[in-house]
Amino acid sequence: MSAEALSPISTYFRVCDGVRVRYADNRADSDITVLLLAPWPETLWAFRRIWSCLSAVGRVVAIDMPGFGHSDGRSELIAPDASGAFLARLIDEWALGSPHIVGPDVGTAAALFLAARTPERVTSLTIGGGAVRFPIEVGGALKDIIEAPSLDVVRGLNARANIGQTVEAVAGSDSEPEVHEDYVSAYDLGRFAESARFVRDYPKQNQVLRGLLPTIATPTQILAGRNDDLVPWSNNQYLHDLLPSSEIHPLDAGHFAWEQAPEAYGGLIAEWISGGYRHVGAS
Fold first, then answer.
1. CB of 146 within 8 A of CB of 138?
2. Cα gap 258→54, rounded to integer Å
3. Which of 4, 20, 222, 256 has its CA 20 to 30 A from that of 50?
């Protein structure tokens, strides 16, 4: 049985800027559009537990960003600023208007660059769990990948085994084998090392982002697990301190808050995009 048979999400492929992008779209006829950016090393299936909740509010589109999940990639696109620019093109090409962006993990930096450089393409942001602090503050395997002397070291890792272990707690190989395999297969055959270019750019790009954060007037909701050992809570507090129009919610979860606390995570987003974002003004 396929993963799609076990989830409300159906996936498709569509080309944007010459890149084949895997996406899902509930195709709702609504004035509200939400664009979900899949976290790493998961895929858009990471949103399966909040999909129905968000679909009750409006049109929901989820993507695997270039180089992540099952989307194709080009090396020059696998960086926070380049991903933000790509998202601007995708929003235009796919006629998404000015969507609410939900970008946990790697989606956080991409969404922030998008909002900083093309604010007219974004209605609001929901971000968090991304290692965007400058100076950088990360832990565990993420720290090892960022500090590895070269990509060759990352290429030497057993990606299938490492990713399988990382996602086991949120998509078990026995309890959800199809979803587990979707995650693991997304980064097999060298794709994990290539996708790691994104986080290895954090130390340099976070410095650029530091100067942009106070200029982002887009209403921003920061959601993340308070017990994240990969991306410490300080990263989320840093955003709240620097973004002029933000609110922050620590959740009772680890790094994968969207899977570990889906009721709280999805509920807060649904309330936000239903109008809550209008009440977060510049201070």
1. yes
2. 12
3. 20
> What is the distance between the alpha carbons of residues 65 and 47, in angstroms, rounded to a whole number?
14
Distant-in-sequence, close-in-space partners of 267: CB < 8 Å, separation ≥ 6: 53
Mean pLDDT of 125-142: 98
Running DSSP on this structure, what letter comes out for residue 277?
Answer: G
What share of the chain in percent tops pLDDT 70?
96
Tokens of 28: 């709702």
Interacting residues of 74 by C-beta distance below 8 A, sequence separation 6+? 19, 66, 67
In the block, tokens 């200029």 appear at: 215
For 189-212, the DSSP string reads: TTHHHHHHHHHHTHHHHHHHHHHH
d(CA 65, CA 19): 10
Exposed e or buried b per residue across 125-152, where buried means at least 16 C-beta atoms within 10 angstroms of its C-beta: bbbbbbbbbbebbbeeebeebbebeeee
Kindly report whether the peptide bond that precedes residue 41 is cis, defined as omega within 30 degrees of 0.
yes
Q: Which of 139, 108, 134 is nearest to 36 (CA)?
A: 108
Does residue 3 surpass a pLDDT of 60? no
| Paired tokens of 217 | 């007037």
What residues have CB less than 8 Å from 189, skipping those under 6 apart? none
Q: What is the largest CA-CA distance in the chain?
A: 51
Q: 12 is written with which tokens?
A: 């498709």
8 confidence band (pLDDT: 50, 70, 90): confident
CA distance 267 to 226: 17
**Can you say whether the dihedral through the CA atoms of 89, 8, 187, 254 is positive or negative?**
positive
Q: Which residues pair with 11 in a beta bridge?
A: 24
Strands 11-16 and 19-25: antiparallel
In this prediction, residue 281 carries a pLDDT of 67
> What letter would DSSP give residue 49?
T
Give strand ranges (E) for 38-104.
59-63, 100-104
